[in-house]
Amino acid sequence: MTVNCSITYIWHDCFVVELNDCILIFDYWADPDGRIFDFITHDKPVYIFVSHHHKDHFCKEIFSWSSQLNNKISYIISSDTARFIKHLLSPRSTYKGKLRIDPERVKIMSEGDYFSDDLISVNAYGSTDIGCSYLISHSSKRIFHAGDLTAWILEEKTPSEKAQEISNFKSILSHIAKTSETIDLAMFPIDSRIGSDYTMGADIFLNRFDIRHLIPMHFANCDQSLRQKRIDDVIAYKNTISLLSPNTVFHALTNPYTGIEL
Length: 262
What we know:
With 262 residues, this protein is an alpha/beta fold. The protein contains five helices and 14 strands. It has one domain: 4-Layer Sandwich (Metallo-beta-lactamase, Chain A), CATH 3.60.15.
């Protein structure tokens, strides 16, 4: 990537992506050592993305950051999240606490919506669970955060349910491909709780797009006794990628606050 870009893994599905003129934060909800602000350069605009309101993707505390940081902060949230926090957004709300947010700072997005300003443009796509996945364009580069978008081929599902899950997933990918078939950086779920087919979503995703850099996510929200097994499963996928998509660089960021520069 010609644009300066650093990516820091915070936890589970949260990342801080710092570009030369702005910062993108995805699905903040847990911060093991409370260090999120260490990775926010204080003179850059910040865009905080929320893919959906599930507790392992969203924390209302993000709305207090406007009073804690000097940065210009914009929130890009899914419509289900907006419904979940309507008391924080509605001008008629009687809530006056620290989480009250200026609605002008918030862009609410649903599948098919588009947003742009002077720095970034955002396409919102669907999910095979709830909420949105996001494709961000910045200086001709494409950054994708999947949220909960993958093929959830759970072992307890019937063959017909699995087929429908794959069909739904591929349909959303087809919509994304209409915008771009090349993605410079993708953050995508690889979660072995699914069972033996836990990599199928990533396999299909890599077959459909030219992915330059892939970072796995959605493997940390479990007991410590199970986490290492899920991390090992994530790391093992590197061998598959080398055969399936040899031009894709796989970055397994499994320890909080570790990162890469591209």
